[in-house]
Amino acid sequence: MDIKIDGQTFWERLSKLHKSWTAGRGPEELWKGADALIVERGTDNEEELYSKSASLHTWLLGYEFPETIIIVCAKAVVVLSSKKKVQYLEPLKTAENATLPLELLVREKADNNAANFERLLSACRSSHAGATVGTLGKEQPQGEFILGWKAKLAEGGLAAVELAPALADLLAVKDHTEAQTLKRAAIASALVMAKYFQGEMEEVVDKERKVSHETLADQTEQAISDPAKLGLKLSPDDLQSCYTPIIQSGGEFDLRPSASSTDKPLYFSTITCSLGVRYKQYCSNVGRTYIINPTKTQERHYKLLAELQQAAIDALRPGVPLKAAYEAALNRLKSKRPELEKKLTKNVGTAIGIEFRESTLQLNAKSEVRVQAGMAFNVAIGLEGLEDKEATDKRAASYALFLADTVLVKEEGPPDVLTEKAPKGWSDVSYNLAEEGDDEDGGKRGGKRGDVEVLESRTRGAGNKMSEAAEKNEALAEHQLELESRLRQEALERIRSGQSGPAGPAGPIETPVAYKSADQYPQPGGSATSLRTNQTIVDGRAESVLVPVFGRLVPFHIATVKNVTMTEETGYHYLRITFVAPPPTTAAPLPKEAQADDHFIKELTLKAKGQGANLKNTFRLIKELRKRVQQREKEAKDRQNLVTQEPLQLIRTGKIHRLRDVFVRPNVGGKKAAGELQLHANGLRFQAPRGEKLDLAFKNIKLAFFQPAEKEVLVLVHFHLHDPIMIGKKKTKDVQFYVEVMEASYSLDAARRSGADPDELEEEQRERQYRNRMNLEFQAFVKRVEEGSGEVGLEFDTPYRELGFYGVPPHNKSTCYIMPAVNAIVELTEPPWFCVPLVDIEVAHFERVVYGLKNFDLVLVLKDYTVKPVMVSAINVEHLDSLKGWLDSCNIKFYEGNCNLNWGNIMKTIQGMGLEEFYDDGGWKNVLAMDDDDEEGEEESDDESEFEPSDEDSEEEESDDDDDEYEDSEDEDSGEESLDSDESEGKDFDELEEEAKREDKKRGRYEEDEKPKTKGKKKSQDYSESESETKRSLA
């Protein structure tokens, strides 16, 4: 074999070693105060698979040089070896990037290398203090040459320290060349597992052949030497097995790396296999578990193990200690199945590279060594000693689960899994053998891998399908029962700690005053209209309306006016002014001057004959004045409740990460304009082109979202805040920065080109490239923000598009695509946005879940009972099961019913009775669970929930409506229909229709055989006649 050493690689890596040694040479540091470094390599030892000396030779030279001594000194490198090896090393002296003098010594038999040994000792004594040398003391090199040197070194009187931990740390970080070699080794391991072992194992199981673990392991090891059959374009000379594959089954499992395959036959139950391929001396490893005829418990345990492994992999980020991987897996296990904690392996892997297993870099509970970018790990995790209570054979009663993958740590983001070509999803590793009575094709797995069926990807018969669905529903129901108990306990704790509860009765409200004295009345000839006692006057300065009553002008402040309408009928104009008036209930707050027995004016109607110019003008002026006053009060109220953010700490020196040419919503300057989003020390700043600034402090950000442009026209980052901020004159808790990656609409007037037009294709390609570029820019900025958020630990959430559904959110009357996320359920594309944090949700209720209906509604009841529940309506019924599963996975209790509930009355009743009493009486179970069993004919029964007011309680219901009108005068309709809004807002269409029928029957106006269209017209006519009579009586 022609040996050629890469000089550039040698000196680059030697320089890396020398710098690390020089920087950490202190007595308490990595290199333990060594003044010189000695690496000795004896004769070849076939029993010694891995050693630090061999690893360092491979790392520096690309080959192992037996019977060679390398000494690294402060200002030189000295090598003693055979004449032939020295010839291989000679070109290194003249390499362009040589950083140190290289002295090459040839072994001499004449004096048994006495002169050479003396030169080596002299080099050690002349390096730094010359008192301590670093050696690989735990290794036992063989050969007369090395033994003679070790004897001479012992006579030299130099102190020795162990070099192995420092070399392990040095070799753990892989450069680009090493990483590429490691990836090829990992791919080879994965393909041997997936293309050879799995196929061979399936054939053995399918044909029920008796093959021992040992035989199958030997066959798998031989497959490594034939890469062409695996589809690998690698030289067989560069490939070898790291160890003989370990295959286990039949209840006897040993998950340690030192385990071996037994000579017992493969048992068709739980089968574990681990194997490793070495490519150009770099090791990789992969381990999988395959389960034949699994139980649901085994499925849950396997999926849990996959979660634990993923948690460990995700924890391997630069800067964290190695123990973080073990802690991540352990914490996930404790949260899911704490009873399995003792079953977990003592570590979850080790560093891997030239050596298969680095014992000083283990992923266990104690390792404080920090992860660095470029490190590679064999993340191997297992659950041992598990029991299958359904097993009929003792060999299947005890089993273990094992997963192993080779991963490479990146500078940013989770590590790359290099062995992903060996699938480990449940459907890839679980099989169901066809019973003897099944159809011939019933047990076949698609493809070329025998007659074995894979669960979840092929049917096992209608009966089993129904059984699986039943088991899934049963598990869901059990978890929901647990959540119900937990929900009640958490709510009671929250109430008792004072964190939640209904607001107490409001205190006396301020009475708006039009004029404090008669001198403030508008005077004739002034700015106001001449005072005529038979005309209405609107005084904008005093914000009041003067109404003629018995020849006198009576002032009313504009704040007391709830609504005003203008109608014309039979030559007369009617101006109807509705005032804010309290309901008859004593619980409602009253003005300070009011007494319990005082009377209030609820409305006034003014009539004028002819053109009614004065009433028309008054109507217009009142509308304008009310709008202006309400806007001013709203702004004042918004600013009053604002919480001051901490000042933004600007980065004055160094690089400021920016996202350029982005838009912000709501607009900062009132107009849409692209600006710049900057990352600073404790927050973000948006700089508009005209100089306007918008600052967001990290501490005020409750949730952050990154939504790439996949099927949308926008790529965006969205922030949901703890406390609202003012942007212009608008208070908002949501701020969004976005870029449009394509036109939202096209002009249909312009001539369209054909789909095959080159210009059209080029335009589409440009759009795709721009979209991809913006997605990458936003993603890079998001990572910078996450890193720069410091102690706040801001993490961006990306909505799950695959779980999304179309529905109508409460703040947007059009259908939108709503997507669940890790921490919220959101719709971020079309404003007004929809964002409900999961931590704010108390319970969820599915409404209109009736067989035959194509859609349903989802109501989210928030923990703050003073806030109206959130309803998403018109969701396609195909999303019902997936939404239930998602809510259950988020530990949110849900109920379902066949009709819409009156949530306004429900929340009022709960607050009226007190939350503690509400939960003591059963809580939401009493309110919502009974709705599951309701039938349409039971709506009028005496056993109806107290939250559904009966006809006998109509007076109380009406008072509630009046209460709403008095407390919130900003939500009324400005149209004419608000005059006749006495119907209960809690009744749905069917109830109103039944009520109308009963009323018509009483009046003798309802005809049973009448067509719906005719009936509707007649009813409308009756209401119009009744309204006209009412207006004339008021006049």
Automatic annotation (TrEMBL):
Domain Histone chaperone RTT106/FACT complex subunit SPT16-like middle: 805-897
Gene Ontology molecular function: nucleosome binding
Domain FACT complex subunit SPT16 N-terminal lobe span(s) in chain numbering: 5-167
Positions of region (Disordered): 433-468, 926-1035
InterPro entries in UniProt: Creatin/AminoP/Spt16_N (IPR029149), Creatinase/aminopeptidase-like (IPR036005), FACT-SPT16_Nlobe (IPR029148), Fact-SPT16_PH (IPR056595), FACT_SPT16_C (IPR048969), FACT_SPT16_M (IPR013953), Pept_M24 (IPR000994), PH-like_dom_sf (IPR011993)
Keywords of the record: Chromosome, Coiled coil, DNA damage, DNA repair, DNA replication, Nucleus, Transcription, Transcription regulation
Coiled coil, from the record: 615-642
Nucleus among keywords: yes
Family membership noted in the UniProt record: Belongs to the peptidase M24 family. SPT16 subfamily.
Subunit structure: Component of the FACT complex.
Record-given protein name: FACT complex subunit
